[in-house]
Amino acid sequence: MTFPSYRDRYLPAMTPRRIRALPDRSWAPVILATGAIEQHGPHLPVAVDALMGQVWLSLVLARLPAGASCYVAPPITIGKSNEHTGFPGTLMISRDTLRSQILAVARQVDAWGFRSLAVINTHGGNMPVLVPTLREVRALYGLRAGVLQSKPVSDIPAQEAAFGIHAGEVETSWVMAAAGRLVDPSRAVCEFPARIEDPGEVRPVAAPALVAWASKDVSKSGIMGDATAATAEKGERWLGQGAASLAAAIAEICRLGRETAR
Ligand SMILES: [Zn+2]
After folding, report:
1. Euclidean distance between CA atoms 248 and 235, whole angstroms
2. Burial of 99 (0-12, 13-18, 19+ CB in 10 A)
3. What is the pLDDT of residues 110-127, one digit of tens each?
4. How far away, in angstroms, is 119 Cα from ligand 1 center?
């Protein structure tokens, strides 16, 4: 067994001499996966977001176009998940700890001579910390820094696209495709926090007032979406689409990095 599958690009698998000798540090980004360990309904393991970071890395690195390059930092697997308080299995760090961890990685990335840091984030609750922290990274160390966005996948039902935000059809399909043995489809349910035709006033996304919601306010099962519609075949297709757009984003960072390094 070989782990991780992308170890040729995994910085912790390298000797200091090898890292120092990497010829493309001035333009190849270091990728940092930020995830979470938190409840994902009764049918999925709590490590989904941490696991998905590794899944994306394996898929994306296998699809890097010719001429593109990147390296991988050790992942941050526990995130800011206080919205899932009250469900067993949720681990979390504070926003301050998450910020400190990202800054600590960025400081070393800079010290090792890299010029850019790109985050693959698999947990929505990390985003409100990531955006200002990456701006700090830019200001403090001069690194180019950003969150890689995968393009929205095609052929998702409108209801799922609007309110399938956690452990629903998309996320469950991904895990069925990537690690099917970890899924118990017999426990999957459909539970949306709102309906497109009757959105109501208090809901996690696109609400008239931005509420500091907790999962238990809007979902009994912990699912927000239709997990019963998930299939491994959809997951395979959506993972492929997402990985292709992430690989294109990395290639673009490399292109910009090369231009600046010149
Ligand atoms: Zn998730």
Report:
1. 20
2. middle
3. 999 999 999 999 999 999
4. 16
The pLDDT of residue 2 is 58
Pairwise CA distance, residues 145 & 133, whole Å: 10
CA–centroid distance, 87 to ligand 1, in Å, is 14
Structure tokens at 178: 């990537």
Residue 79 token pair: 């995130």
State in Å: Cα 49 to ligand 1 middle. Answer: 5
pTM of the predicted model over 0.90: yes
Query: What is the Cα 146 distance to its own chain's centre?
Result: 13
Which stretches within 41-94 are classed as H helix?
Answer: 48-62
Q: Domain locations in the chain?
A: 24-261
Fold of the 24-261 domain: Rossmann fold (3.40.50)
The pair of structure tokens assigned to 160 is: 């799922």
